[in-house]
Amino acid sequence: MSEEPLQDTDKSMEPLAIEGKLPLKAVGIENLKEDNPKHMPPHRYLHPWFARRPTPASRLAILGSILPKETDSDELLRLMQIEPREGIDGDIAEYVEKKKATENDRSGILADHYGYKRPFTSSPTPNQLSELHDKLESTWGGELPTVLDPTAGGGVIPFESLRYGLPTAANELNSVPSLILKAMLQYPLSVGHLRSDLTEWGEFINESATDALEEYYPEAGSGDTPSHYAMTYAVTCPDCTADVPTTPKWWLLRKSASKGVAVKPSYDESGELSLERVQLPEDVTKDEFNPQDGPRSRGGNLECPNCGYPIESETVKQRFKDGEYTHQILGVKYTDRNGKSAYRAPTAKDQEALKQAEQRCENDIDVFNLLTEEIPKKGEKTSEPVGYGLTEWRDFYSPRQLVCQYEYWQAFEKAKEQVQTRYDKERSESLLTILSFAAGKMIDYNSRLSPYKVSKGYPENAFAGKNFTLQWLYVDNNLTSGNRRYIDMISRIIDSYEKIVDYLDDIDVEPATVTSRDAADLSQDDNSVQTVVIDPPYYSSIMYSELSDMFYVWQKRYLNDVHPELFRNELTAKDEEAVANPSRFTDIANKSSSKKELAKKSYEEKMSDIFSELYRVLQPGGAMTVMFTHKETDAWDTLTMSLIKSGFVVTSTHPITSEMPDRMDVQGGGSADSTLLLTGRKPHRERNLNDRLPTLWSDVKADTRKAAKEAARDLIDSGMSLTKTDVIISAFGPTLRVFADAYPVVDDEDNEVPPRRALEEAREAVTQVLVDEYLEAEGIDELDDVTEWYILCWLVHESETFSYDEGHQLGLGIGVDIDEIKRSTKTWRKSRGDISLRGHDDRVQNINEKPEDRSSRIPVNPDDLSFSLALDKIHAAMHVYDVQGESACCDWLRERNFDTDSTFKSTLKALLQVLPHDHGDWELARDLAAGRTRDVLDLDFSPNVFADDGDETTQTTLGDH
C-alpha cells in the first residue's frame, strides 16, 4: 500500500483515489502475470510497437485519476477485474499477495491458483459499469469524465478507458501507431466483427502471392518445402581468395553445447566453399568440430576457415560499405510431406533461386525502384546501418526478401481493388487497414535485422532491442510456408482484432476520438477534459520515429490512398517528436553546448509545451497522471521542470512494478522495471511562479534526503518485487514533490538549483539505505573510493552493464569521477554508451607469464606485495587461485599478510553478497572464502552464508529478502 496526502493549497479540489492508498503490490503482481509472451493482451499481436503499458497499471492510473479518494482498495481491484470467483475472508490485496507467495507450489494453471483469469481478459460487468458511472457523475458535476491520452502509442490507456464506458480521446503524432489506434478504438465500435471478410481476403492475398513466389523457394526433394533459411554473408579472403562466411556460429539448431544440428565448412583445392550438414554428437563431436566457433569473433574480426588469415572488423565494415559481399545460405529448415521439420545444407537449387531473386531486383523496374527513400544518415539509430553501406530502405532486405515483400504487397493491391468496390467506405477502410498489419509482421520476421535463433532454429523479431542491428546470422523467411507463414500472421491479427471487439461488445460507449498531431497542439477546447493519463515518450530510450520508418515506408505504399492524411510525408515526423535525440543537433553542437545537452534542452522544451497544452485543455480541478518509466536523472530532471513550468501541482506519486525484471530490451538501457504514477492537478486558482519567493537549497536538501530515505524504507518493508535500482527511482517521486513545493530553489549565491540536485541527493541517501539493509560486511565506508564504487554498482544495479548516467551519479555521491579512473584502474569500460564492469580476468596480468611478456595496459601486477586498491588485492588473489591453485594461493596470501588485512576481508565479504552467483568472480570469491585459503585468511564468515538455497545462478531481488 502507499499513501500520499494531497499537498495542494487549493482546497476546492476534490481529492481523488490516486491521492490516497492504492493496492500497489497486488497490481504489480498482475502486471508481471501479464508480461508473458504466451498470454499477452490481443492488441499486442495486431502490429509491432514499442513499450506498451500493462493493462493493470493502466487501469489503476485511469480509475485512480477519476474516482474519489474514499474509494477503497477492494472496490478498485474489483473494477480492475482482480477478484476471486469465490468469496474470501479479508481484503483482496492480501489474498493476491498470498497467492503470489505460493504461486510456484501450484498444481494447475495460474487462473485456477488465483481464482480468476488474467484481468485483461475481462471487462467490467453491466452492474459494475452502472455503479461506476453513478459515482463518477456525482464526482464530476453530473457528467462522465473524458479521458485523454495525448501520446497514445500502442493504445492501451485509451482502450481501457473505453472498456469502462468513458468518453475517450487519443492522440498520436506518429502515423504507424495511429493506424493501430483506429483498429483498437474506432473500428470495433463503428464496424464491429469482421472475421469472415478478413479471412476471405487474407486467403486471397496469400494464394496470389504464393503463386508468384513459387520459383524462389525450391524443394530439395519431393514434398520437402523450405520453411526458412539461415543466412549470413561472405567476403573474399585477401590471402587465399576463398569465400569467408561472416557468421559467428555454424549451428542450425543447438540443443546443448555439444548436441544439435550444424553445417561444417570445407574447401576444395581451388578454395570453393561447401557446407555439410552434421548431427552432433552422432556425426562429429564438439571436440572434433565446435559449431560455436564461427569465423566472426565477438569483436567483429574474421578468420578465414580455409587459410586462417585474419580480417579486421574495419576491413569487413569497409567491404560492406563498398558492396563487396554476397548473401550466403548456411542451411535450410524444411517441412517434409508428413509435416515433420528437419534441417539440411543448401543445394545448387537453393543457390540458383537466390540468383533469380537478385536478377529480378536488377531487371524488374518496379522492384528496382521499390523503397528507394534514403535512410537518414545522421540519425541516432539509422546511423548504425548506414555505417555498413545501407543507404536506402530497400537495403534492409536481401534480394529474395525484397521480392517476397513486394509480391505480398502486389497481392494486397489486387485485393484492394475488389474490397473498395464491394464494401462501403468505412468497412473497406477498416478491412484494408487491418489486412495491412500483416506487412508489419512480415517486416519484423523477414529482414536482414531478423535474427536466426540457433537455440530453437527459427526467426526472431527484428526490433527486440529497439535498434537497427544488422544480423550476421539472419533469417530469410518463406512466408508461403513453414514456421512464420503469412497465413498464420494474418490469422493471429484477425483473432486479435475479433477479441478486441469481444471486449467492447457489451459496452455502451461511442468510438474514441483519434487524432494524429503534435501533442503540443491538440484539437480539444480549453477546459474541456477532466482527466489526462499519459505515458510520455521515454527521453532518449526509444527513438520512435527513426525506428518506425521501417514500417512507415511500407504502410505508405499499402494505405496512401486509404489514409492520405497519415502519409503526406516521405518519412515519419522527426522535428515535432518529443525525444532526446542527440543526432538532430550534430551540425549545431559546439564546445559550449554538446549535442546531448541540446537534445536534453529540446526534450524539456517539447515536454513543457505538451504539459502546457494539457494544462490548457484540462478543466480546473482536473487531474493528469503521468506513467513514467525511466532511470536516467536527466529524464526526471526534465520531467519535473516541465511539470512545474506548465502550472501543475504535484499531489501524489506511487511506484508500481510494471515489467518483468531483466527483460531483454532494456538491459543496460534507460527504462526501469517499475513505473512511477505521478499525479498533478490543475488548480482552480492560477499560480504565478514568478511571484513565489525562492527557497534556499540548504533548507530543501535535508527534506529531500529525509523524503527519499522514508520512501526507500517503506518500499523495502512493503515486500514489493522491485530491483534495488527501482527503489532509487521510486524514491524520486517523493523527492520531486518536496522540490516542487519549494520551487524556485536557489543556493547561497542566489543561483537557481535544478531538480537534478535533489535527485542526486535522493540517490545518495537511498544508496546508503540499501547498504545498511543488504550489506553485512563491516568497514565498507572505510574502503578506498574506487572499491566502494565498484561494490555499490553491483549492489544497486545487480548487473555488470548499466546506464553510464547511473554509474556516474553513483560515483559523484562518494567522490569518484569515474572518467578519471577508467584508464588507470580498468574497473569499467564503455559498452554501447553504457558502463560494463570488468572482472578480475580483465584487470590482472598473467602471473604465469614472464614480466617482460605481460601487457603493461593491464593495471594489476599479481607479483606486487602491496596494492593501492582493495579491489586489486581481491582480483589478484582470484587470479592466483584460478591459474596456480589453492596451495600457491595460500603462500601468496601469507606473503602479503592478508590474514590481518581488514580491507581485504571486507571487500571479499561484500563481493560474495553482491556478485551474481553465475559470475565467475563470485565462484572464485567463494573458493577463497572456503577450504585452506579460508584458514589462512582467518575469516569469521563462510561463503555458505551468502548462498541462495533456491537458485544459486541468479541474484536475488528485494522481494526475495
Radius of gyration: 30 Å
What does the overall shape look like?
globular
Structural class: alpha+beta
- Helical content, roughly? 40-55%
Described by strand count, sense and barrel closure, the largest sheet is: 7 strands, mixed
Strand order, sheet with most strands? 15-2-1-16-17-19-18
Mean pLDDT: 90
Number of beta strands: 24
Strand % is 5-15%
Distance between the termini: 18 Å
Low-pLDDT ranges: 1-9, 661-672, 949-961
Number of helices: 30
In short:
Residues 22-70 form the DUF1156 domain. With 961 residues, the protein is α+β, with helices and mostly antiparallel strands.
Please explain how this structure is put together.
With 961 residues, the protein is of the alpha+beta class. Among the domains are: 213-400, no CATH class; 689-774; 778-960, no CATH class. 41% of the residues lie in helices and 13% in strands. A 7-stranded mixed beta sheet has the order 15-2-1-16-17-19-18, sandwiched between helices. Strand 10 and strand 11 (341-344) form a beta hairpin.
Task: Break the fold down into its secondary structure elements and pairings.
Elements: H1 24-34, H2 55-66, H3 73-79, H4 92-101, H5 110-114, H6 126-139, E1 147-149, H7 156-163, E2 168-171, H8 175-185, H9 187-190, H10 195-213, E3 225-236, E4 243-245, E5 251-256, E6 259-267, E7 273-280, E8 302-303, E9 310-311, H11 313-321, E10 326-335, E11 341-344, H12 348-363, H13 365-368, H14 383-386, H15 399-422, H16 425-445, E12 452-453, E13 458-459, E14 474-477, H17 486-504, E15 513-515, E16 529-534, H18 544-559, H19 595-617, E17 618-628, H20 633-646, E18 649-657, E19 674-681, E20 695-696, H21 697-718, H22 724-742, E21 745-746, H23 755-774, H24 785-797, E22 801-803, H25 804-813, H26 818-825, E23 828-831, E24 834-837, H27 870-895, H28 902-914, H29 920-928, H30 931-937
Parallel strand pairs: 1-2, 1-16, 2-15, 16-17, 20-21
Antiparallel strand pairs: 3-4, 3-10, 3-14, 5-6, 6-7, 8-9, 10-11, 12-13, 17-19, 18-19, 22-24, 23-24
Helix pairs in contact: 1-2, 1-4, 2-7, 10-15, 10-17, 12-15, 15-16, 16-17, 16-18, 19-20, 20-23, 21-22, 21-23, 22-23, 24-28, 27-28, 27-29, 27-30, 28-29
